[in-house]
Structures are given as C-alpha cells and as structure tokens.
Amino acid sequence: MTEQAQVQMNFSLLTDHDIYLFKEGNHFRLYDKLGAHVVKNGSVQGTYFAVWAPNAARVSLVGDFNAWSPETHPLAPRWDGSGIWEGFIPKLGKGALYKYHIVSNHNGYSVNKGDPFAFFWEMPPSTASVVWDIDYTWGDEAWRQKQGEHNSFHAPLSIYEVHLGSWRRDPTNPDRLLSYNEIAPMLAQYVKEMGFTHVEFLPVMEHPFYASWGYQTLGYFAPSRRYGSPQDLMYLIDHLHQNDIGVILDWVPSHFPTDEYGLGYFDGTHLYEHADPRLGFHPDWRSAVFNYGRHEVREYLISSAMFWLDKYHADALRVDGVASMLYLDYSRKEGEWIPNEHGGRENLPALAFLRRLNEMVYRDFPYVQMIAEESTAWPMVTKPADVGGLGFGMKWNMGWMHDTLEYFNQDPIYRKYHQGKLTFSILYAFSENFILPLSHDEVVHGKGSLYGRMPGDAWQKFANLRLLFGYMYTHPGKKLLFMGGEFGQWPEWAHDHSLEWHVLEHPDHASLQKWVRDLNHLYRAEPALFELDFDPKGFEWIDFHDADNSVLSYLRRNKSGNAILAVACNFTPVPRHNYRVGVPKGGSWKEILNSDAKDYGGSGQGNMGGVEASPASFYGKFDYTLSVTLPPLGVVVFKQQPTPEPPPPVPQIK
Fold it and tell me: Fewest C-beta atoms under 10 Å: which of 204, 374, 440, 513?
C-alpha cells in the first residue's frame, strides 16, 4: 500500500460515551461522529470514516482516490458490538468522492453504498458521496437572539412556500437552475417587499429524482447539489435571516426511495426499513418505510432533524407525511397491512418516534417550531407528549383548505347551499395550533392554479382570489401561500419551469400582488389578527346564519382586548348596500381594508373610509350596528377607533 492508501485503525471520533448512548438509543448528534470528517490525527490531516453496518462481513472504502477498488481501504469493525465500522485515511481531504463497499455476512450480497451521513453528494444522476466540511461564518446573530419572538404562537407567521428550482430560472437559459447564492438576494428582497415573515422550502435535502420535488430524500444530511454547496445554502439562510425572514425546511422522515446506492437493504439486510413489505413499503410513493421500532433508525432520523436546526440554523421543520406514519393501513387495502400488537391500525413505534423527536428538538432548540403535515383528525397533534399528544408546535389545517377551496369552486349562485363548508372550520379551529395552507399540493396534478379554480369571468376570478386571501388572512390560524398564487399565475405549477413572472405586466395580476402585499403588512400590523390565533378569545361570530346572501361576519381581538376588528365577507358578485353588521362598541369604525378598492382591480365600492356605529340591538348579541356596503365578491375590515378624550374644562376667571 502507498502511504495514502493506508487506513489507520488507531484513531476514532467515537468515545465510550458515544457508543453507550448509541446502543441505548439516545444519541441524537450522530452527524458529529458518523460519516466522513476531515480531521487531524496527530500531525497528519486526513478523513475519518464511520458507518453503521452491523450485518456486514466486510466494509471498505471505494472512491476516486483508489480507482474504486474494494481491496485497498478496508474499514475495521469496532469491538464493542455497536455494528460500526471505522478508519482514518491520511492525506485524504475535501472533495474526494467515495462510497462504502459492503459485503453482507448473511448471503454474500455485495454493493457500493452512499454514506447515510454524507454532508455532500455528487450532482445527480451521479451517486457518490463527497468528503466535505460544513464550516461557515454566520452573520445572523441578531435574528437568532430574537428567534423565539419570530416563531412564537403569538407572532404573525405568514409563510411563502417556495420550490427553489422553479421560483425563478436563469432568464438567458430557462433550463439552468439558479444557485442558492444567486437566489438569495432576489428572494430576500421579494419576500421582504411582499411582507411575508417566513420562507418555507420544499425539501432541499439531496434527492435522486428532481421531479419528486425533494420528497424522495436520500441525503438526510446534505443539501441538493443542484443549487450549490452546503456553504451556499447556509449563505441563503443567513441572508434571509439578516433580512428578518425566517426559514422553514420541509423534512421527510416518512419514507425513502429504494435506489440501490441508498439506505435500502443497506448491509444485505433490511436495516433502515421493515423486511415485510406490508410494513416496509409504501404503495403510494413506491418507496421504503423506516422501521421506527429500531432505536438506531430513530437516532438517525432525530439526528437529521437536529442537524438542520443546528448546522443550518433552520427556524422550523415541516414534517411531511405524518398521517402516513400514524396509520398502519394508510392507503393500503385489506390484507396489505399488519395490525399492531393490540389488533389496531395505529403505528405504535411511529407514535413513539414522533413524540421522542419533538421532545428532543424542543429540549435542545426551544425557540424553533415543529410543524406537522397531518391530514386526518388524529387528536392532540400539537399537544405535549407528556399529556398524550404528539408534541408538535403547529399543524397544517388540511380540513380548512379542502373545505374552503371546495366552497370557492362553487358558482356563487349555489354558495348559499354550502355555507357550512366555511362555518364548520370554527368548530375545531382551536383544537390544534393550525396553519392555514394554500400549498403546492393544491396547484398540481391537474387541479389547476388557484386562479384557474375560481369560477366566473376574468374579473370574478381575480375578485374571488382577493376574497379567498382576505378570508384566509382574517381567519384564525397562521398563513401559508405557495409561490405564484400571490399574483394569480394562470397555469398550474410546473417544476420544470420558472413561475410566469411576465404576467405581472398585466394590471390584474399586479393588482392582486399588491393586495397580497397589503394583506401581509396589515396582518403584521394588527395584533388582533395574530396574537390569539390559537385561542377562542380571539374570535367571535357576528353572524354566520346569512346563507341566503352568502355573507359571513366576525370579530377578531388581540390579547388585551383593546383592539377589535370587524370582518365581513360577501361571497357573491351582488353588492349588499345598507347591510347591518353588529359590533360590540359604539363610535367610529374605520374601514382599514377593502378588497374591492380600485387599487386592487376592484369596482371601487366601499364605505368612504369608515362608518359610525348606531345604537341598535343586533339579534340581542350586540348593542350597536354598522350600516355598510359589502362590495361584490369582497371582504371589508373595520377597526374600532378610540373615543377621543373630552377636552379639559376651561378655567373660569373670577
């Protein structure tokens, strides 16, 4: 062997305590110990490798440094029964391509596997792992000091959901993806101008199939090379933070693709997944399901979650596919699943994993949020694990999304028969800490764009969109809008193309964009719209019975109760003049928002800036009413104005 080809076995990053925690199932920073790490062994710099392959008879390193030969760089198994193989290669450094050559002790199966803990990968479709460091000098200290305020339940959260490969592309070459570095200043400026508080990225973790949008993840510790290096993604997140914009990363612990170089059948056994396809294979995504009952697998996934919060300064993880994890029969027919030990359909190991995941994340990162994409009525998703909940901080409100879009799809003449689709949401609005999502899933697979799903002619489509967004921003719950929806893109989203920014040359699209911008800025300025999103004290119906006119009206309040907003939505194209809206206090009520204003492309019908409350009983519920104009397909918001203090008495001269 040459000096560089020698593998030194007398060096390890793993301590006895690491092994103790690993074997116990409580090591959640495995990214510091396993994988490839450029380090010094005495005076010699090189790379330390460690991989978990308990059923391997032999493990060696192959790469561009040894012509991919499995004979020159064998790793050694640890003596402690951990199943970890390790070794140190002198003078091997950053940029080297490598895989683990594994020969199974079960059946002689041999394969070259990528590193489950790799920090970087080759550009797909190439599949080698890359030796890399993740050193970076961050400049987001000011943001991090106030992270808890930015991500609080009582803060405004308006999330702009982005797919990096199709938000914008190189205008001179539409086939070229922009890098993290190129996107950073453009995205930060746009999001800041539009008033969104956070950006949520569809998975940036490395994935073999671009058209999976990142949801078929294999690099659980690596950003996609399609957009640049790990440091480039750190720069993007850092730049957003320095512009007071939070970052949410989609993260997929529910399944993984079965590509040969990946996690599946890793050491000649079903190491990360279940062996029985009724437990270990997902029919919807044709992918493998993690074995949550194995503590090494739980450690792997929790370490991945910790990694993105720790090394990449993410403010939240949105956990994909939670419903598919909770139910053993999810999307499976009779005979295609195995009941749990009690004969039920609940996936008990997955439940334990999710609770442990959230406990550990909030223990180590108390100012972040864990967000569940959970599409069923599983109870207490956002309640603490110690009281029987799953321990998430927030949850997507999929029921609100489906009911609302189904309602808006109706021709306005029929909406009076479907008013319950809207009013039902308040019955459960405070059962969880909800985010209201109009996400990427609603503008793909033939569903059409949000604009395309609205009924009526072009004017009515835009008016319906303004009404939809106004209703969402005044409804209890945090907000999420997928890119392109804010300016009414015509076709549904296509991951192979940039958004159709050119439509902003048309006044209708530019006006809708202005409406969303103003909604965001009003939302952030009015505590009544966000402070009590998860508390029924922040919402009160004025009237939900007027289905004949397809009108809903309600109040929003802040924590102190000294700021009250009255919201009225007219879901038909017929204006309602002299419409009575009950309010709890007299005096002047200023019209602070009107979706029918001409600036937004509306017809200009409104209330001349405000109205005076009249002392009149409103169904015995309120002692005052407002007589207002409800514009066609419009939403109006009124704010009670403080009663001016009477002037002090003029002193009398005697």
Answer: 513
